[in-house]
Each structure stands twice: as C-alpha cells, then as structure tokens.
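Reading group handout, session on sequence-to-structure problems. Before we discuss, look at one worked example. The prompt was deliberately terse, the way you'd type it at a terminal:

> structure YtxH domain-containing protein

The input record follows.
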Amino acid sequence: MKAFKFITTLAIGVGTGLVAGYLTAPRSGKATRNKIVEDSQEYKDALEKAATLKLAEAKNILNETIKEKSVQGKKVLDQLASKTLL
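And the output record:
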C-alpha cells in the first residue's frame, strides 16, 4: 500500500511539473500542443512496456506457485493413499 501511495504521489508531482513546464515554455500554442502529443505518446508507450513486463513477471510467479502447490498436493494425496491402504 505504501508503494502505491508513493507511485501515485510521484505521478501527480510529475504531471504537475510537466503541465507547469508546458504552460511556461517559450513556444507557440501549436508547437506546445505538438510537444504534448509527442511526449504523451512516449509516456504511454513506456507505461505499456513497463506494465507488460510486470504482467509477464506476475504470470511467471503465479505459474511457479501453481506448480509448487500442485506437487505439494500430490505428495499429500499420495501419503494419504498409502496410509489408507495399510
């Protein structure tokens, strides 16, 4: 939860700084709009890439956990089966 709060606060701070920078930049309105479009596309692409990497990492962790728990469950079932046969 602390990480989420930190990331949210950081994102708000960065966004505020970017808006202030764009509004005070010595460019024409059209150049500023073009710059905003270009930068937002770059940020969107970077965010998508980071999210994709984190999702792949989470899937790998989930798959490993499922494999481990499956093996553990099979061992328990095998032990129970061998005890009931005795």
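Points for discussion. First: The chain has one domain: 2-85. Second: The CA atoms of residues 51 and 57 lie 10 Å apart.
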